[in-house]
Specification:
Layout: H1 10-23, H2 26-43, H3 50-59, H4 61-75, H5 83-98, H6 106-132, H7 138-157, E1 162-163, H8 167-174, E2 176-177, E3 180-181, H9 182-200, H10 202-212, H11 214-219, H12 224-250, E4 252-253, H13 261-271, H14 283-302, H15 307-332
Antiparallel strand pairs: 1-4, 2-3
């Protein structure tokens, strides 16, 4: 009588994936998030309430949405410093078109959404062309784009805030669905799409290959330049979506909007376990990293910590994350 091996069940596959995630570093990060939440709930009882937790998700929504595209870029060993300025620019271009319109102008609202995303995709594509085909240094290219996009935002607005947009545009930042704020829902949807794209598609596998060893990926037949181009374009699209959400939340577009956002985006990505050296990272890790920053910010505020110290602590967390990543790379080498 011959014995046959039992086929793995769905629960076994789920358990295996969970174990792999824990070993990848997401487990300790999630544990740190839980521990911080427990400590804050003890020291500040109002922390562990539905309103506070929802508020945290809304506060990190703009950073989180932009961080999804940024994760793809950093996994390819690139960097995008223009994301904050692009959030402002995409929102301002759409706002300039729609400023002063009536709330029920659906057509103009949809046009504003399309234009904002087109601006984000266009600027992201320009970054991608510069890095992939012109072979310029990502840090320098996106630093220059950060200045140009911010300057263009100020020029378009003449330094003034734009108000009054159609409901079709502001809905993504101001409305609620089944009691849940729209920014939170948009962020979760973008994270879900990003996770599927990174883990379940050929493009996602190519992103890891390019970041792990660009020359080996090229020899394996992977279109390296196209992959890099698409990651920067994707980062531009997610920045535009973040700009739409931000403008909707405020029902206005500010020339100084998202100033310094790029640092928060990179912090969330790096804290989430994505290596600045490329080849390693996850959307789930980025989500936990972004939420962790939001929890720290809100928690310190509830505890009455001086906002200046909050910024210092944020910097310390980023420094620790980068240092741990560097030590991990050294052990591998």
């Amino acid at each position: 009588m011959t014995s046959t091996a039992a086929k793995p069940t769905d629960s076994d596959a789920l358990s295996s994936r969970l174990i792999r995630q824990l070993r990848s570093g997401i487990g300790p990060l999630f544990a740190a998030l839980v521990i911080i939440c427990v400590v804050l709930s003890i020291t500040s009882p109002e922390f562990l309430t539905t309103s506070t937790l929802t508020n945290i998700m809304v506060q990190v929504s703009v950073v989180g949405i932009a961080a999804v595209g940024g994760t793809f870029v950093i996994i390819t060993s690139g960097i995008d410093l223009s994301v904050g300025s692009l959030v402002a620019l995409s929102g301002m271009v759409a706002a300039t078109l729609m400023a002063g319109s009536t709330p029920d102008n659906i057509g103009l609202g949809l046009a504003g959404l399309a234009i904002a995303i087109a601006v984000g995709a266009g600027v992201g594509a320009l970054n991608g062309i510069s890095v992939a085909w012109l072979r310029l240094v990502p840090f320098i290219v996106t630093l220059a784009m950060m200045a140009m996009a911010r300057g263009l935002t100020l020029a378009i607005s003449d330094g003034r805030t734009k108000f009054d947009f159609p409901n079709a545009f502001t809905a993504f930042g101001a409305k609620s669905v089944a009691g849940l704020p729209a920014p939170m829902i948009v962020m979760l949807v973008v994270f879900l799409i990003g996770h599927v794209l990174l883990r379940k598609t050929t493009f996602g596998h190519q992103v890891f290959a390019v970041g792990g060893n660009m020359e080996a990926a090229r020899l394996a037949g992977i279109p390296v330049r196209r992959v890099i181009f698409l990651t920067y374009t994707l980062a531009g699209v997610t920045a535009a979506i973040a700009g739409i959400v931000l403008a909707g939340r405020l029902n206005s577009a500010l020339p100084s909007a998202a100033n310094g956002l790029e640092l928060q985006v990179i912090a969330g990505i790096v804290i989430g376990g994505t290596s600045l050296a490329g080849g390693r990272g996850s959307i789930i890790g980025t989500f936990i990293g972004v939420v962790l920053i939001g929890v720290i910010n809100v928690g310190l505020s509830l505890l009455g910590v001086n906002p200046f110290w909050t910024q210092f602590i944020q910097g310390g967390v980023i420094f620790a994350a980068v240092m741990l990543d560097a030590l991990s790379q050294r052990r591998k080498n």
